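Q: Structure for this?
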Amino acid sequence: MNLIDGKKIAAELKNKLKVEVDGIKKKFKKVPGLTVILIGDLAPSQIYVKNKEKSAKEVGLNSEVIRYANDVDENTILKKINDLNEDKSVSGILVQLPLPKHINKKKVIESISPSKDVDGFHPMNVGNLSSGYESSVPCTPLGCYLLLKKIEPNLSGKKAVIIGRSNLNGKPMAQLLLKENCTVTITHSKTKNLKSECLLADIIIAAVGIPQLVKGDWVKKDSIIIDVGINKIDKGIVGDVDFDQVSKRAKALTPVPGGVGPMTIACLIKNTIDCFKRINSN
Ligand code: NAP
């Protein structure tokens, strides 16, 4: 079984991005900038933002985190986003989710300029992705896609089963795989007989949030399994795939932690650089 080392592949990607940023600095005499808005003090959000800031600095981006208390009003956030949209030194804007209940997530996402939407959540980017046009792509599915391409450069004709249909993971993942000419099945909580769907798959992307849902006898021999899940259980962090069982049958499998997670952050950096390039090519 090939253990897909997301940590190593993400480090390689970040090294390439660093070289690209050095080139941009020389060519444009500018540095791409990522601004993150963080509201409240949720511990996981604090950790994610810290890691994003660290990676941005490692590759040489300008990076700023703007922090607000949990009770900040929605207009303050919308006004700040508007200012950042206008700010030429900012290439990418990310509002860390989840937001406090009194702030409208849809309004916030739609207020970010699509050209600076490094999360790829703006409806314009979602539409462009599903139309097969150039767009920002949500970082986690983009990371999964790059891991898959590393293992299997030619995905054409493969049968892919995606578990989960969230806007964050399952749906954009399906678009990326369709573009690669995979035959894609998207499954969800109302899917009947998930196991038999999975048994048909050459590729499984598990993005559910149920610890170790995918068992060894759910997967075809020699399939490729990407585990997006991050679930805290008594013995630590596990994915949506039963690693011990599935590793005995799969051709390749991502570990949790150390699989998709590091790629998500590397892809955020990639998206920021891509936004800079798109803005500066006009
Ligand atoms: P989400 O928004 O809660 O969506 C979960 C999806 O799973 C939904 O579409 C749901 O179906 C489906 N589902 C639930 N129970 C199911 C079942 N028994 N069988 C089949 N499908 C089922 O979750 P998410 O935001 O996509 O995140 C999924 C997991 O990925 C979580 O563990 C999260 O922590 C992790 N994650 C990891 C990263 C990373 O960087 N590695 C990034 C983001 C998220 P319905 O639509 O019918 O409800």
